[in-house]
Amino acid sequence: MAAPVSLPAPQVRGDRASTALPLADRLFVIGGKWLLLAFLVLSVLLPLLAIFWRGLNGDAAQGGGLIAAGALLRSDNFHWLLGNSLKVSFSVALIVVPLAYLFAYALQRTRIPGKTLWRGISLLPLLAPSMLPGIGLVYLFGNQGWLRGLLSDNIYGFWGVVLGEVIYTLPHALMVLLSALALADARLFDAASSMGASPARAFCSITWPGSRQAVFAAFCLVFTLAITDFGVPVVVGGDYQVLALEAYKAVVGQQQFGRGALIGMVLLVPALFSFAVDAWLRRRHGQGMSGRAQVYQPGPGKLRDACYLAIVLVLCSGLLAVVGMAAYSSLVKFWPYNLSLSLDHYQFNDTAGGGWLAYRNSLKLACGTALIGTALIFTGAYLMEKTQGLRSLNLTLRFLCFIPMAVPGLVLGLGYVFFFNLAGNPLHVFYGSMTLLVACTIAHYLTTAQMTATTALRQLDAEFEAAALSLNAPLYRHYWRVTVPICLPALLDILRYLFVSAMTTVSAAIFLYSPDTLLAAVAVLNMDDSGNVGGAAAMSTLILITSGAVSLLLAWTCGGLLRRSQAWRRSAPGH
Q: Residue 252 and residue 246: Cα distance in Å, rounded?
């Protein structure tokens, strides 16, 4: 018999609070938790274990075990690849984090005009595959690029990879730092000003201590993204090879699954280390604002605002130049000899790469991931946060929900290959299907969405559930009619995040598609490999436009939905 499940209703002392829930609610709570556990085990835990099994298996046909691992780690080629990856990743992180901090500071702590516009421009690289910055750089600084004369050498190599990764990772770091700088207690700045502290002194004593943990988190995030991405190196790497690209070539090009598993295990190390240190720092980091804090509003400063506006303009101009160049090149008939505008590159059915089928598959993947993922993640977060009982199961679920944050997409995709393609596995029937792609994409981006849902749910008082119990209202009905409408903004954020992520994903899905489930982002990679850079630019631009249009549509419909479902938030007349 299943253990009784109770709700956090401290003021309900009768038998109703201590007895088991009705059958419908028991199915909702207990069944929901076990269903989420099954999904996490199949989509996260077992694929990761399969990587270690494949990489450490002593059978030469599987991977060669410790002997093969030792040979790989001692090889000069591996040392060269590892050195290249570390050099690129550290360089990208050291460039991106200061730039993102300045950008975030300009948006949150100054009075520069057009903040919404600059914020929107900074998000453009998030709406397209990671290959788009590389394609834009090729048309700007490649052998036949518009600005080729500005460089003494071509863009292919170390600096091409670094510049591409800087553009790709900048929005990710910016999101972390914007959140850190969004909250500040105005009383601290007033006290500093009354004591005669200069703005520089106030920054060093107030702003920096409150944001340095976020700076390290952004550094770890950028480092992990750069060391595990192979989209930019594929386009502008040239002879400069990195570990992520080697893992991709070993599995896709050479069918060396054991070598791919070993490299995947190596790529997992920096991600796990960064996640562990960041989690340790979060525990040591205190709360930045108390319940009596006053919201900080930046004061006037013409010189300060002019300097930060110049920084923002330079960064946004660089992003627009690269993204805009990729979009423009997709409309050029034959670069650089015939610059007349044409839609020939958008005739995907006439070129290699998957055609319009890949685009339709990406739309299916994005819609399925957004709808199913939002329902699964938000409901699971609700069950973990708002119901008690089954404590061990709750702890297990929370642990498994945080694992994807520390697992690069490339490593997760390799794990899916080794687990779902395993002989004798009854789940092998899903290999190459859209179902498996949806499950993998949800698992890949689960942690961020789950943290968003948890943050929204923790703002709701437990008395909501207590009132439902006292009225004998079923918990599932209370969840649908009360909790979901209240948390609708967070739900829409999760929906938008999962849709855009599914449209642009390539690292995990690169190993899992079949000819019938080829994705648009993968088609970009295939077209670039075949020399059809114009077609790759066109498909990337189409993904960018689709992601941007859906984001704007959700933002537009959000207002109407909130007005209908959350009229209680508006003040009554005369108040």
A: 10
159-181 residue pLDDT tens: 999 999 999 999 988 888 887 77
Which CATH homologous superfamily contains domain 22-54+372-518? MetI-like (1.10.3720.10)
Tens of pLDDT, residues 341-380: 888 888 876 555 667 889 999 999 999 999 999 999 999 9
By the 8 A CB rule, do 273 and 436 touch? no
pLDDT at 83: 92
Residues paired with residue 185 on neighbouring β-strands, in sequence order = 295
DSSP-derived 3-state class of residue 104: helix
How does pLDDT run across 183-223, given as a tens digit for each residue? 665 566 656 666 766 677 777 766 777 777 788 888 888 99
Q: Where are the domains positioned within the chain?
A: 22-54+372-518, 95-178+210-244+275-288+301-336
E strand or H helix at 341, and its extent? Answer: strand 338-341
Mean pLDDT of 98-124: 90
Read off φ and ψ for residue 339, nearest 5 degrees.
-95, 15
C-alpha–C-alpha distance, residues 138 and 32, integer Å: 49
For residue 199 the two structure tokens come to 């703005």
Distance CA 443, CA 419 (A): 15
Domain 95-178+210-244+275-288+301-336 in CATH: superfamily?
MetI-like (1.10.3720.10)
Residue found under tokens 């500040």: 184
At 130, which amino acid appears?
A: S
CB 519 within 8 A of CB 543: no
3-state DSSP assignment of residue 174: helix
